[in-house]
């Protein structure tokens, strides 16, 4: 049984990755502070990677809206690459963001940090897969782009092609198994939409009737199609309506 180390295993996406990996028969080694691992200091990394075949990095060592996300993200990436090489890991998978390849979007420091992290992985001398994911349906009320008030919800006018987070989790786990090959791949959902549409659909599904107002996106790349699936992207379901139905069933 293959041992898969997951950085960021206790995060929202990390928990889904662990679930998908265990369903696929992996033995999961969580890399998190609660397990004695600190990516920024490298504490505990070497011991945890002993006997690990693949490493999947879904870590978020800093908030996307932090004043300086670049320094900690790159430090964590460098430590993880060094420890993976030392441990003889066969494959390194990084979960990135579709759009980081766009120069305009890299004005957003978090996107710039992820793109530079990709460069560290690409230069790692390890077999690697970089998975650029679209936004997830769960982004519908993300405070990075949506502000909730008592009587109104304000959503930035991003043009997106969102996927279900669980579908992305399953995709990156298969990347850890080598199914998607080496280099950069992109995974997106099947439907194009505007973020305010997604926000409104999620609110109405929850019985929340607050109006959704549209605000301009802070960068042109967020609303000009740069976040949509490129021609070579892999598209994964479900679509929005099916995802909403599934959320309702899970809540019962």
Quick overview of this protein structure:
Keywords: Photosynthesis, Photosystem II. The protein is of the alpha/beta class. Helices cover 33% and strands 20% of the residues.
Class derived from helix and strand content: alpha/beta
Give the CATH architecture.
3-Layer(aba) Sandwich
- Tell me the span between the first and last alpha carbons: 35 Å
Query: What can be said about the biggest beta sheet?
Result: 7 strands, parallel
The number of helices is 7
Poorly predicted runs are none
Keywords:
about 250 residues; alpha/beta; photosystem ii; single chain; NAD(P)-bd_dom; about 20% strand; NAD(P)-bd_dom_sf; about 35% helix; HCF244-like; Rossmann fold
How does this model look, in words?
The protein has helices at 12-23, 45-48, 70-87, 109-122, 165-176, 195-205, 240-251, and strands at residues 3-7, 27-31, 54-57, 91-97, 127-133, 146-148, 153-156, 159-160, 183-188, 193-194, 212-215, 234-235. The protein is of the alpha/beta class and 252 residues long. It has a 7-stranded parallel sheet with strand order 2-1-3-4-5-9-12, sandwiched between helices. α1 crosses α5 (165-176) and α3 (70-87) runs parallel beside α4. The radius of gyration is 18 Å and the shape is globular. The model has no long low-confidence stretch (mean pLDDT 95).
């Amino acid at each position: 049984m293959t041992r898969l180390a997951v950085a960021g295993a206790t995060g929202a996406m990390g928990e889904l990755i662990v679930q998908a990996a265990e369903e696929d028969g992996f033995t999961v080694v969580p890399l998190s502070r609660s397990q004695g691992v600190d990516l920024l200091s490298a504490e505990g990394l070497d011991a945890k990677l002993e006997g690990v075949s693949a490493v999947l990095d879904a870590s978020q060592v800093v908030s996307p809206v932090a004043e300086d996300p670049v320094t900690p993200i790159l430090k964590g990436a460098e430590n993880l690459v060094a420890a993976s090489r030392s441990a003889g890991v066969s494959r390194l998978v990084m979960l990135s963001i579709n759009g980081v390849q766009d120069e305009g979007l890299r004005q957003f420091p978090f996107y710039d940090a992820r793109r530079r992290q990709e460069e560290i992985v690409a230069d790692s001398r390890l077999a690697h897969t970089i998975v650029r994911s679209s936004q997830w349906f769960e982004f519908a009320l993300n405070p990075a782009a949506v502000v909730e008030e008592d009587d109104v919800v304000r959503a930035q006018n991003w043009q997106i092609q969102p996927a279900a987070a669980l579908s992305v989790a399953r995709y990156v786990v298969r990347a850890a198994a080598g199914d998607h090959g080496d280099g950069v791949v992109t995974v997106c959902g099947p439907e194009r939409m505007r973020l305010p549409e997604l926000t409104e659909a999620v609110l109405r599904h929850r019985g929340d009737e607050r109006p959704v107002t549209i605000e301009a996106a802070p960068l042109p790349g967020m609303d000009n199609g740069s976040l949509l699936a490129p021609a070579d992207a892999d598209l994964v379901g479900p679509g929005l309506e099916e995802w909403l139905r599934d959320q309702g069933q899970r809540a019962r």
